[in-house]
Every structure is written in structure tokens, then in C-alpha cells.
């Protein structure tokens, strides 16, 4: 039935959104301070192509009903029935388009978030796949992520190098915070000295100095 394929895309988008929100909520409940990178499942290329094929078929059906509504082939049908068929065909076509755009928009938003957090590198896009994160993306999504990340890098290396554009938009509640080291990161230089980040060690540091390390998962706010 028309619309069933597009509905699968909507369900997939909702499932992705719910799983990512659950990960964020679990991190908040555990007291984590990391900025969670959202995950993307594998792009449903075949399903998207089938939806586009269905949209094209609906478009041709609508054109036939509009241009041949008074032909002998449809003479046995009541004019109101033809108009109803035409209207329903248009609705199905527009619904398919909106479902497809919603699916693409959700994935694009997640890619934007990944690009701002990590400049498109070391991202967690495909759960369970540590060999090649980009396997979850379509060819066009890979190109989009690459070019968008390049734009962000160019922006950061311009006149705004002294501003952390990828930092949190929420003002910090405390200037200094306690952090726990989640994985070894070696020595880091701050305005207040050098810290040797060894796993499971704790420090009382200025939040602005370690914000980037928290986002990258090296530190956890406690």
C-alpha cells in the first residue's frame, strides 16, 4: 500500500531519536559530564530509493488523472470519484516526500552535531562497528560530513581562533570543577600548571581548561 515504505523511514528515525535520548538520560543519571555523541544506524539506501520510485509512480498517476479525467477510459467513473482519486494520490505523494525529508533531516542534524564536536573524526556513528564508522553513512552523507567539517576547521582557524566555537552554549555553574580521568591522556598544560591525566585519578581544575577533554571522553565531571 502506498505510504508503507515511507512509514518505515519514520519509524527508523523515531527509533534513532529515542535510542540517542536514552543514552543521554543514562549518562545524566550516572552523573556523567561528557557530551554524548549521537549514533546513526546504517543508511537505508534501498528503502529510500524505493520511496523515490513510489513518489515518481504517484506523480505519473496524478498527471494521468488530471490530464485524462474526461477520456473514454475513465468515462464509466463518476467525476467526483476521479477527483477523489487525484486528491488522494497527491496526498500520498506529499506524505512520502515529508517522511523522506524528516528521515534525512534527523540524520543531517546528527552529522552537524558530530562535526561540531569532533570535526568529523573519531566519531561514533555505527554502534558495534569500530573498524569504519563511516559505514553507517551514505556516500552523500560522507561527502557532506567531510565538507562541513572542513568549513568548521576553516572557521576555527580564522579570526575566531581564541574562541571555542564547539564549547557548550550553557554557561558553567562553577568556575572550578572536580573531574575523574576515564582514560590516559598524558600531560596537559593549563594556565595553572601541568596535569598528568592517568586513568582513575581526580583533579580540581578550571572547567574552561578541560571542557574539550570532557567532550572527547577523557574526563568525567563528578
Automatic annotation (TrEMBL):
Keyword Nucleus: yes
Keywords assigned by UniProt, alphabetized: DNA replication, Nucleus
Domain GINS subunit: 76-157
Domain of life: Eukaryota
Localization annotation: Nucleus
Domain DNA replication complex GINS protein PSF1 C-terminal: 174-221
SUPFAM superfamilies xrefs: GINS helical bundle-like
Subunit structure: Component of the GINS complex.
Family statement drawn from the similarity comment of this UniProt entry: Belongs to the GINS1/PSF1 family.
Function: Required for correct functioning of the GINS complex, a complex that plays an essential role in the initiation of DNA replication, and progression of DNA replication forks. GINS complex seems to bind preferentially to single-stranded DNA.
Name of this protein: DNA replication complex GINS protein PSF1
